[in-house]
Each structure stands twice: as C-alpha cells, then as structure tokens.
UniProtKB/TrEMBL annotation:
The keyword Signal applies. InterPro entries: DUF753. PANTHER family: DUF753 DOMAIN-CONTAINING PROTEIN-RELATED, GH09876P-RELATED. This is DUF753 domain-containing protein.
Amino acid sequence: MWRIGLAFILLVAGRQISAGIAPEAQNAVEPPKCYSCEGINCLRTTLQNMTASCTDKLDVCVTIFEDYAVSERGCLSQISLAGQAKCEAKDNQCLKCSGQLCNNKGRKDFKCIQCLGSESATCNKGATSSLTATQCGLPTSANSFCYVKVVGEHLQRGCSLTVKEQKSCLADKDCSLCSPEDSSDGVACNAFDLTVGSKSGASQGQQVMSLGLAVLGMLFLRFVN
C-alpha cells in the first residue's frame, strides 16, 4: 500500500515540476519545427505558414536565398544539397537560426531604417540623424527594397517585402524605393529624405497670395476714392 502512495506522490510532484518549466525550456528538448517551402512556393503569400518537423534535436532552421529572394526554407538536414553547401560556406544566402519557427527573416544583410516620423522626430531627418538600420522580415517578392514615404506631415521608412507594396510605392509620387545593396559604410540606403508638406506648403502659398491681392485691392480702392 505504501508503494502505491509513494508512486502517487512522485507522479504529482513530477507534474508540478513539469508545469513549472517555461515553455521555451520544454521546447528546447524537442526537435525544432521550421517554416518550410521550396522554389516558387516560397514567394506565394498563401503558403508562408507551411511547416516541417525536424527529426534531430540538434537540427536548426534555415532560409536559403537566391540573391535576396527566398528559394528554400526548412530544417538544415532536410533541405537541398545546394542549400546545405551555401550554409557550409557561411554564405550570406544562408540564414540559420535555433528555435521553433525562427526562420522568418530576410537575409542578415537585408537591413533598412524602420521608423515612423509621427512617433520619432529623428525619422523625419534621416540624412542628418544617426538612425540605425535593423534586419527586415521575410520577403515574398523576387527583389527586396527599402523605402521612404511621405505620410501626411511626416516621413515613414521601412522594408518593402511584397510585390503589392513595391508596386504601390512606385505608383506613389511621395514614395521612393532603394536597394539594400546600395547601403554603404553602415548607412542604410533609405537614409535619404523626401520633401514633407509640399501640399500644405502650396496651400500656404495660395493663402499668402490671396492676402496680398486683398491688400492691393484695398489700396487700389483707397487710391480711386
């Protein structure tokens, strides 16, 4: 009888210990799960959440690129030999990470300034401020770009990751794209500035002109009278 009681106590204690372990610590003893895709499917927005489970606890998640476009994602041990070769060569076109579903970033050198001028005044002065570029998310387009955009009275800077975003920027006279390859000396390519408030400036000019004409009209009436 005492053996049954002891077994019950150990079972309860084991459950309490397990419940007290943080989820990330529990995940650490499980083989990782990675986002998975191959070829053109890596650029399809509807397939971005496909996953693959690794069989080895020591495996890692990877993203393989062709230039800046994603060509393959998955467990390192399960991707193509060409992809594994890029990782072995420590090529920028291979990005490895440890953890569950961690392979959701762009190339480690795909960095843009990401900020909102409405929240940070320095964002409106990219050319004269010390804004720091940060790694972008996973692109679903064949090309990766940074952008600067006029939004109201402020500038917005960030990563342009989808074809839809890139086409929208190209069609907007207040938006400009640049290639991360054009970054130099640690300065992101989207550190340049665009003219802010051009519409409001035109409105103010019209108001000044109207006021000037009104004054001239009053002087003319006085002169005539």
